[in-house]
Amino acid sequence: QVQLVESGGGLVQAGGSLRLSCAASGRTFSNYAMGWFRQAPGKEREFVAAISWSGGSSYYVDSVKGRFTISRDNAKNTVYLQMNSLKPEDTAVYYCAARLGIKSIGGVVREYTPKETSEYDYWGQGTQVTVSS
């Protein structure tokens, strides 16, 4: 089991910044790919960003590219999401998620950092981010 606890959410004006943190415990953090997802009221949970187990690869949804940065500190068992130039449409509950960072694909074990919610095994409780206009 992996336990995930998010923090750092809050209320910010448009154009402002927030830094979300997700502290992990329970298993070897460096073995896990980590993702950030968000869910706005009345909408499905959507992918925001993900980072590979090594930190060598990162991925973003188009709407946050150039504004958000995902990073991880394996020594601190923590993944971060730096959010700059926030917009009202970024308002949502933000969740971090974890899964093993490798997967057998076609009989070959490969680094695996998915964007689909269904591919993640562990989830935090979420932190609210509200961006006012």
What report would you give on this structure?
It contains no helices and 13 strands. By secondary structure, it is an all-beta fold. Strands 2, 4, 5, 6, 9, 12 and 13 form a 7-stranded mixed beta sheet that branches. Strands 1-3-8-7 form a 4-stranded antiparallel beta sheet, with no helix packed on it. The radius of gyration is 14 Å and the shape is globular. The mean pLDDT is 96.
- Overall form: globular
Report the portion of residues in β strands. Answer: over 45%
Based on CA atoms alone, the radius of gyration comes out at: 14 Å
Series of H and E elements: EEEEEEEEEEEEE
Q: In whole angstroms, how far apart are the ends?
A: 40 Å
What's the main sheet like? 7 strands, mixed
Average pLDDT metric: 96
Helix content: under 10%
Q: What count of helical segments does DSSP give?
A: 0
Q: Uncertain segments of ≥5 residues (pLDDT<50)?
A: none
Q: What's the total number of strands?
A: 13
Structural class based on helices, strands and sheet pairing: mainly beta
Features of this protein?
133 residues; mainly beta
In short:
This protein is mainly β. Helices cover 0% and strands 53% of the residues. The strands form three sheets. Strands 2, 4, 5, 6, 9, 12 and 13 form a seven-stranded mixed beta sheet that branches. It has a four-stranded antiparallel beta sheet with strand order 1-3-8-7, with no helix packed on it. It has a two-stranded antiparallel sheet with strand order 10-11.
